[in-house]
Amino acid sequence: MKLKIKLIATIVIGLIIGVQTINAQDYSSTVNLSQKSLAIREVRSNAITASIGWNGLTGVGIIYNNYLAKQMGLEIGVGIAATGFKFGGRFRYLFSEKNFSPFVSAGFMYGLGLNDVEIDFENNQTGNKYSYTINSSPFAQIGGGIEYLSKNGFLITGVLGYAILLKDSNYEIITGVPTKDELSVMDKAFGSGIVIEFTIGYAFGGK
């Protein structure tokens, strides 16, 4: 619990620093369209990005992002992760209209599992053997990060946060008896844990 509190506090402090940095910037992130000044995310309100990360929205996959407003975004993604085929959705609030903006996010992810496919494991140090499978894996995710969207449409984001498994366990031991340490490693690998995610892609116009 203390680790989770420290993690959330670190994210919040980082966002505050980011906001202060953004506010100090002197360049414009608006585009003059027919004499009307629009924020960059109003001009380029859709985006497609490739995503990779640990406990991220998709694992390794593709994310579609729609900017509902100049400081709000909704993401929907699909991909492949340790929990099998994975999909999810996430809401983001950006603290600035500028090209660089820190944000906070909250979402839901669901891994379909491995369809009873057994994975064999042998501990090279102890010789202990067992097999397991991964079941359905619902997660809630909270986080924060930084986004950069250029006027030409180049988009990159980085996210740090925490993913919370919404069930007691998402794996099942089929054969053998894992040790306490081995079970702890599996909990960290497939259960709740830190989110580290990076995306890169292109934003384009249209609502």
How confident overall, as mean pLDDT?
A: 87
Largest sheet strand order: 3-4-5-6-7-10-11-13
Helix count, DSSP H or I runs of 4 or more residues: 3
How many DSSP E strands?
13
Helix content: 10-25%
CATH class: Mainly Beta
Provide an overview of this structure:
The chain has 207 residues and is α+β, with helices and mostly antiparallel strands. It has a single domain, classed as Porin (Beta Barrel). It has helices at 2-23, 40-43, 180-190; strands at residues 30-33, 36-39, 46-54, 60-69, 72-81, 84-94, 100-111, 119-122, 129-134, 137-149, 154-165, 171-176, 193-204. It has an 8-stranded antiparallel beta barrel with strand order 3-4-5-6-7-10-11-13. It has a 3-stranded antiparallel beta sheet with strand order 8-9-12, with no helix packed on it. Strands 1-2 form a two-stranded antiparallel ribbon. β3 (46-54) and β4 (60-69) form a beta hairpin. Residues 15-28 have low confidence and may be disordered.
